[in-house]
Design a protein that fits this description.
Layout: E1 6-8, E2 13-17, E3 32-36, E4 42-43, E5 56-60, E6 66-67, E7 80-82, E8 101-103, E9 125-127, E10 135-137, E11 149-151, E12 159-161, E13 171-173, E14 195-197, E15 216-218, E16 226-227, H1 229-232, E17 240-242, E18 250-251, E19 262-264, E20 283-285, E21 293-294, E22 307-309, E23 317-318, E24 331-333, E25 352-354, H2 365-368, E26 376-378, H3 389-393, E27 400-402, E28 408-409, H4 414-424, E29 427-429, E30 433-435, H5 448-464, H6 474-485
GO cellular component, one term: extracellular space
Keywords: Leucine-rich repeat, Repeat
InterPro entries: Leu-rich_rpt, Leu-rich_rpt_typical-subtyp, LRR_dom_sf, SLRP
Amino acid sequence: MCPRKCSCDLSRRVQCYQVGEIPREIASTSRRIHISHSKIKTLQVTDFQKMSSLEEFVLTCSGTESVEINTFKNLDTLRILELWKNKLRNIPSSLPENLEVLKLGDNLISALHESDFEGLKNLRVLDIQSNLIVVLSFITFSSLNSLQSLTLDGNNMESVTGPVHLPNLKYLSMEKNKLQSLSGSFFTSLQNLLFLNLNGNLLTDMPPELPRSLLSLKLERNQLKMMRSEDVKQLANLSQLFLSENQISSVDGVQHLSSLTRLEIAGNKLQTIPVRLPITLQKIDCSNNLIGKIQAQEFHNLQDLKHLFLDNNVVATFEDGALLKCTVLSNLALEQNLLHSIPLRLPQTLARLDLKGNSIERIKEQELSQLQHLQVLNLRNNKLSTLDYGFVKHLPRLRYLYLDGNPWNCTCSLLKTRRLLLTQGTDVKGGRCTSPLESQGESWMSSKRILHLCASSNLHSSEEGKETGKKINVDELSSLRGHMDDYYDYEMD
């Protein structure tokens, strides 16, 4: 029978919720047991004595404070042990030597000892994040020769020391600690490390002697001031580099990163785009810096670049054709800059163009005439008062157009533009009139009042045409009114 407050399935998996102890009725043949949101203060040897087939045990959010000595020792089939979000103060003792995954995040563990991991020759994954470890010696892990992933995030660690003997480690994360530096020999034996995460520490310099094997390096939210050529010259395999939210004013040596596809350096103090960018780049994020000018030489031969973020800078000058060599660029963000016009000769592959928060007063037809693939155009919070029909007809795939926060002068000339936008099925947000006075607050995309005013104006002009021999008959008048009625069923919000 399946225990009360539990569910059981044919794969011999048992899930229990809000129990007060490990249910005695759990079948001895169960392979996986998951218990959550319960009240189990202590785990005991007797809880698992009959579970000779247990491969995975997960206990979360259950207030567990201690584990009796040898509780898991004789569980020879146990491969995965997770005791997340409890109140443990120590690593459980005498763990089975066949254990492969041990996760003890969100507990109250303050110290690690070498004896905690003795005999765990098959352990591949160790996660001790969000505990209370302040000082850590990596000699503690010296017996874990099979370890591939080690997570120590959120422990407020102030120092870590070596030697580090983890020859098979591929993933190391020490995010959200208080590390100020790492010794030059720290990475000496980590020659197979692929992913290193040091986000959210107090590092003032890039770690020395980083492993050549690295594919991804995360150093965001530290106190770095520069990147030097000697820091990264050996990282020819690096694919992703994250340096956002530091105090970096200069970047040197990026040309050595010949495999780099992603560079994120937002929220720093850069005044120019890093020079000699690798041609392999697919994404660059330089937003929230102090960049004032964009030049073609900075993006020379970036033929794989798909995403470029330059928002929240002080860009006032954008060289014509600066991005023409970026022949697959689809996303360009230029929000919150100092541009007075849309840059000329942008790549025709663009699908999204963000220009919110600049000082653009008018859009010229040639500025967007090549953007046949553009789907999203954000023009919010500029100084636009009119929108020419010629601008819209070059954007056949435009699906979203954002116009809020502009001082629109809602004359009848906008209705031709409006009609084409409706015909193309473009979803237009915004467009409220600032002038003339009688149209203030109305939207030139959805206001029936403006349509009536312009229809009346057209009719009045037609009556005046009688003096030059022009006449409008009843059928023509009916046709005109019917044509204007086509707009009335289109309402924004």
